[in-house]
Every structure is written in C-alpha cells, then in structure tokens.
User: Fold these one by one.
Assistant:
Number 1:
Amino acid sequence: MSLEFYKLLHLTGVFMLIFSLGGVIVHAINGGTKQSNKFRKGIMATHGIGLLLILFGGFGLLARLGLVSEFPMWSVAKILIWLTLGGVIGVIYRKPASARSLWFFLIMLAVLAAFLGIYKPV
Ligand code: HEM
C-alpha cells in the first residue's frame, strides 16, 4: 500500500479520535456520566477504531519512509501521545472536573503529535 494511503488512514484515525474525545468532554462538562451518555457505544467504537487506524497508518507510514529499523525518538514520543489519548477517555468520565482543562491540553497534545510527524525533529 502506498504512503498516501497510509497517510489517509492515519488522518482518518486522528479525526475519529479527536471527534470522540471532544464529544465525551462536552458531555462531561454538561454534567453527563458514562451511563447517561446516549451515544456511549458509538463514541467508544469511534475512539477504539480511530486509535487502531492511527497505529496501523502510523506504522505503515514509518515503513514507507524506511524508518522502522531506525525508530526515531519522535516516533517514540508519538506512541506515548497515542497511549495518552487512548487512556484519557476513562479519565474524563472519572474526573469530570478536569474536562475543561483537558479540552485545551488535548488540542495541544494533538498539535504536538502533528508537529512531530511533519517536522520529524530527532
Ligand atoms: C502510534 C503512534 C504514531 C505513529 C507511529 C505516527 C507516525 C507518523 C508518521 C511516520 C508521520 C509522517 C508521515 C509523512 O511524513 O509522510 C506522521 C504524520 C502525522 N501524524 Fe502521526 N503517528 C502516530 C500518532 C499520531 C497521533 C496520536 C496523532 C494526532 C492525534 C498524529 C497525527 C499526525 C499528523 C497530523 C501527521 C501529518 C500528516 C501529514 O504528513 O500530512 N499521529 N505520523
């Protein structure tokens, strides 16, 4: 599969992930709980499939760029960001008071992931 295809897959995953996190955050800010979320299954599926597409697309990109054996530091940092964005959905439900700050923090984290992928600093 081509670099372009993996990139499209990667970005599709990013959109799904960010969309689902945004939905859960707004729900939590409005006083909603996991149980009261009427789109709970849909959000969890979007979040999970998004994460898988990011991972699959990301490693496909690394392979196409010939960087799998090198595995640069920025790609390790991206995996840590990926893990954080995967785990944080539970935190939002458990600590709704953190939802507002997470809204801004997660945007910054996603921008950092994009920066690392685009500039490949180290
Ligand atoms: C498993 C973790 C990840 C890996 C291995 C990975 C890998 C990559 C690679 C290799 C590129 C460079 C593509 C190129 O130069 O053609 C890239 C670009 C990018 N990544 Fe990731 N990534 C990961 C996670 C993430 C996450 C969590 C986000 C955002 C939430 C993200 C957003 C982006 C964006 C926006 C680009 C720019 C796409 C472009 O070049 O047009 N990545 N990623």
Note: The pocket of protoporphyrin IX containing FE is lined by residues 3, 7, 10, 14, 17, 54-55, 58-59, 61-62, 65, 75, 78-79, 81-82, 85, 110, 113-114, 117-118 (CB under 6 Å).
Number 2:
Amino acid sequence: MVRFVNVTKIYPGQTKPSLQGINLEIDRGEFVFIVGPSGAGKSTLTRLIYREELPTSGQVWVGGINVAKLKRSQVPYFRRTLGVVFQDFKLLPDRTVFENVAFALEVTDASRREILRRVPAALELVGMRDKANQRAQELSGGEQQRVAVARAIVRNPSLVIADEPTGNLDPENAWQIMRLLLNINQMGTTVIVATHAREMVDALRKRVVALENGTIVRDEERGVYGYA
Ligand SMILES: Nc1ncnc2c1ncn2[C@@H]1O[C@H](COP(=O)(O)OP(=O)(O)OP(=O)(O)O)[C@@H](O)[C@H]1O
Ligand SMILES: [Mg+2]
C-alpha cells in the first residue's frame, strides 16, 4: 500500500535532511503508529505520502503509484483516493457539519443522490448525524475532529493518514477518535497515525515505527511508544 525506497527529504533552504535513508513498507489493511520526538520527521513522512511534499531522492509509492511521477494535474485525483486527518481539524467554520463532509464529495462531481446516501452514513459512523445541520464553529474540539474523520472517509479511501489527530483533544475525546480510526481499520482501510499519544500507543500494541533525527530507529509489530 505504501512503500518508501531509500527516501531522503531536504526542505528548500535547509542543509540537514528532515528524513534520510527511509525504507518502509506498509501493507494493505495495516494500522501503523509513527512516533518520535518533536522534529524527528513524522509530519514530513506523512506529507510525502499524500504528496504535499516530494522526496529529494528515493521513491515514495502509494497504492502502486510513484508519487513523484504524478503530473501536477493528476495530484488532486490522487489525493481523492486518500483520507487525511489533521491535528487542527481544518473544517470550514461557517459551514454545517453536513456541508463540510459533502464538500469532499462535491469536488469529485458526485451526484446529489450519492451525497445524500454517503454523507449521513459517514456522520452516523462517527456519531454526528444528529448534529448534521450545526455549523462547524459551534462544535467542541472532539466533535470537530469526528466530523473531520467523517470527511476523510466519506469517499471510501483505501488509506487514511492522520497527523497528530488527537493532539488538541482531552483524553476522553482522544480515545474516541482513536477508536474511530481503529474501527475504520477493522473495516479494511489502511491507517497511518503520527502521534505523541504515549498512553494510547502503549495500550493498543499496534505496529510502531519510531523516527529520530529523520531516520527509522525502531519498527515493531506490537510496539510501544518507548520514550521516557
Ligand atoms: N516546510 C519546512 N521547511 C523547512 N524545514 C522544515 C519544514 N517542515 C519541517 N521542517 C524541518 O524538518 C524536521 C522534521 O520536521 P517534522 O515537522 O516532520 O517533525 P515532526 O516529527 O512532525 O515534529 P512534531 O512532533 O513537532 O510535529 C524539523 O527539523 C523541521 O524543522
Ligand atoms: Mg509533526
């Protein structure tokens, strides 16, 4: 599903690589945590997957596509095959919950009928169907992130990438979001989560890939967070 082949990333104007010599393979259906200290390269790794950034050298393959080979015009179509969740939700504040999720389908020219079928189902899954008509700015942080998860999955992606999805949430809401991501994974979607959430990583014993200074220092099948 995702394959990094000897990937190095040096941002423009930087001399020190943010990622170096990354070799990583994530299979379809896996649930993977990316952990590591601040500045280790977690966000950079996720941005390379959804082609927000390009590798300086090496290759990033996502679903059989070498992302560096995508033409600029193909990038939006590529991104639509993925679901991305951010720490700061990134909802349209003055739009309703329904509109925020529907927007992800409207850009794909989905029919009205398709939208009316898929959006309520996605909202149901995250427990937000009864707030469909509320504006995003009127929601709590936990609710906003549930809507963001609904938006990420409404197109039925085979891969969901989340960068610190629980970073702005209290422990109860954080667990709720993590349980949603686990449910989505159980339904067959590959899920990659960059996180600082030690307690959840330790409790769940999923695959853990640890980064330090831009390199992978640990990759364990039923891993723990592992930093004091
Ligand atoms: N757009 C950018 N331009 C230049 N340098 C960058 C850019 N983004 C990140 N970096 C640098 O790359 C390194 C890795 O950053 P990255 O954001 O990937 O780390 P992270 O592991 O996600 O950290 P955090 O836990 O704080 O989110 C850092 O040294 C950072 O300063
Ligand atoms: Mg980060």
Note: The chain has a mean pLDDT of 97.
Number 3:
Amino acid sequence: MNQFIEQLETFGQVELGVRLKDMTTMRIGGKVEYVSYPRNMFALAQLIEYVKKNDIDYKIIGKGSNLLCSDEDYYGLIIRLDRTMNHWYIDGEHLIAEAGSSIIALSVFAARNGMSGLEWASGIPATVGGCVFNNAGAYKTSMSDNVYRVLILDNGNFRWLSNEECEFAYRFSVFHKRTDWIILAVEFSLIEKDENEIRQMMDERKIRRLESQPLEFPSAGSVFRNPNSHNAWFLIDQAGLRGMSYGGAQISVKHCNFIINVQEATSEDVKNLIDLVIGKVEANTGVKLTTEVEMFNWNHMKIPHPSKR
Ligand SMILES: Cc1cc2nc3c(=O)[nH]c(=O)nc-3n(C[C@H](O)[C@H](O)[C@H](O)COP(=O)(O)OP(=O)(O)OC[C@H]3O[C@@H](n4cnc5c(N)ncnc54)[C@H](O)[C@@H]3O)c2cc1C
C-alpha cells in the first residue's frame, strides 16, 4: 500500500477510485482519486493540516445535492463527513448536530421530540453543513432562521460563529467567502410545539414537493437563483424552454428551474442547457440569471496527484 494512503487511513476510512457521479444527486461526475471519511472532528483537523502541508487539493462535500461536477477525473481528495460526523443531541430548546448529519433525519428527530423550526427542511437531500453553507431554505424559511451558532474549524482552531457572524443572506453565507473554514457542527434554537402539528406541516410540505418537483429523476434542485424581479422558473418558462433537452439532460417539464438527468447525461449536456437558459432568458427579458448550483472540478489542472508524481 502506498504511504500516502496509509497516512490517510490514520485519520479515517479511505476509498479509492469512487466516481463523483456516485456522490452527487445529479449523478454526474468523474472519478476521484481518494475519498476520506475522517473519524471525528479532531481527525479532520489533523487531516486538513496534513493535506495543506503536502499541497494536496481537497474539497469537502455533503450529500453533493448542489453540485454539478465535470466528467473529468479529480486529482485530489474528497472529504465527506456524512458517515462519521453525523451525531446530535438535545440541550433544552437547542438541538446540536454534527455537520455530516442528514437534515431530513434531523428534522424528523426534531419533530418526534416536539421541536419546531426544521419542518421546511424535511425534503432536502442534504447535510446540515451543506445547508449552512448555502443557507438552504424553502417556504419563506431558511437555515438562518434556526441557527443559533456554528462550530467551525479555522486554521487548526475550533471556534463558534454566532448567527450574525455567518452573514446569512439568500442562499449565501460567510462560508462562500471563507472556503478555508469547515463547518463542524450547528446549534439550532427551536421552539416547543405539538408533535402532531409539526408532522402535519411536514406531510403537507412533502405533498407539495412531490407535486411540484421532478423527484423521480436525478437533479441538483433549483439550478438558478431567483433574481429580484421574478422567480427563475417563470422567466425560463416565458423563454419557451420548458421541456427542452440536450443529450441526456432536460429542463424539467414539471419544474423548469430543475435540470434533470433523464438518461446518462454528461456534464457538458447540463452545462449546455445552463448556457442556453442564460442566453435565452437574457435575450427575452434582459435579466441575466446566475446559477445556484455550484460547478465543481471544471477548471481542474491536468497535473498528476502529488502521491503519483
Ligand atoms: C431534490 C432536491 C431538492 C432541493 N431542494 C432545495 C430547497 O428546497 N432549498 C434549498 O435551499 N436547496 C435545495 N436543494 C439544493 C441542496 O440540497 C442545497 O443547496 C444543500 O444546502 C446542499 O447541501 P449538501 O450537503 O448536499 O452540500 P453539497 O452539495 O455537497 O456541497 C455544497 C457546498 O457546501 C460545501 N460544504 C458542504 N459541507 C460543508 C462543511 N461541513 N464545511 C464547509 N463547507 C461545506 C461544499 O464544499 C460545497 O461548496 C435541493 C436539491 C435537490 C437535489
């Protein structure tokens, strides 16, 4: 076994040659050399120190539900927290969850314990860390409404950021600027409520999602941010793009801010549809849409991974 893998294994489980396609909800993306699942936050801190020292490119991913990865291979390390850093506990009206926790599982747990605030999140296939990163939200509620504080790893130090310090805005947080900070855990402030009332709201939201979103196909949720003036789906619809296909990708007929992977779509198929939407909507309305989905590994460097040099 090479020394690099042996070193990685001291920090946690390592997988080789996994495809980003198998780590993202869009089900697109090339092969990754190494995936690491750090045992806990201390192992994660040491792992980050190690990769920085050795100049190894790395990327944290949650459930990959907001990523459009290129089909190229990634010569770096993907770090995932969802297998190991996924524990939570209640402290009065606060719920403290590790960043790799599933937000769906957490919202169900909160409901079962009569804690209200996360009902909006019960259909989002994401981790708590990814939801903080993007300030995910739905039904006029978002992560920022519930977050009390966030534990981060900053240059080898653990420290808490208050809600204000997270600089939450529409699908934005300070973590977009500070990509060197890692979200380790989140403390939520929730409200006591009857479990049945919470469940009823979650059930209603589930029905709305099933009716309005193409959940039967792989996707990354809404592709475009809503501009100030209108909903992005409305502008896409007005531009006559509902149902438009390119290769194996399609602008969903059910919800035209979703691009779905209908049949073995390539990353370029999706990218072509994104460019088409931006161009047509701008020509039609003068509004330039921007993506909510994050493009990952598109400007990769064609150099071998340090361990292979
Ligand atoms: C069917 C479907 C429905 C969706 N519905 C919604 C919705 O209603 N509302 C909404 O807002 N979004 C929605 N999304 C989009 C997506 O779920 C959110 O953007 C979510 O916040 C992404 O979380 P993730 O764990 O999958 O993060 P990923 O997509 O894996 O990563 C997103 C970014 O977060 C960073 N990141 C992840 N974890 C950490 C961490 N611990 N520390 C630092 N950075 C980190 C990654 O590096 C990356 O830059 C939907 C997606 C799908 C597929």
Note: Helices lie at 3-11, 41-53, 103-112, 128-134, 195-212, 232-238, 267-285.
